[in-house]
Amino acid sequence: MPNLFSYGTLQKEQVQMETFGRLLQGEKDILSGYKLKMLEITDPEVLRKSGQKYHPVLEFSGNDDDQIEGVLFEVTEAEILQADEYEVDDYKRIETVFKSGKKGFIYVGK
């Protein structure tokens, strides 16, 4: 099963239930080499699900001292596509390796 790293609204139970139809299982992990910025969300459906106008977005820094804490969730291939639908067009999905050594997908700013 693929892993999906959440550092923001995908950790919310309401967002998980509305996006995937279930609560996700995962473990805390750390992503190195990125910083967080805030992105204003205008998509009405994402605003409704998250209840937040501003969402965090990852920006590559290349500095290993920059670390983002989050949760690495186990998801299905179909759920990855559902997550793609949830994330607005300002994000793109890439695969990377986490501090734990596990591989997983992250959403970064375009």
Automatic annotation (TrEMBL):
Keywords attached to this entry: Transferase
The GO terms this record gives for MF are:
transferase activity
For this protein, the parts annotated as crossing the membrane are none
Q: Which domain of life is it from?
A: Bacteria
State if Transferase is listed as a keyword: yes
Every Gamma-glutamylcyclotransferase AIG2-like domain range: 4-98
The UniProt entry, under SUPFAM superfamilies, shows: Gamma-glutamyl cyclotransferase-like
Its protein name is Gamma-glutamyl cyclotransferase, AIG2-like
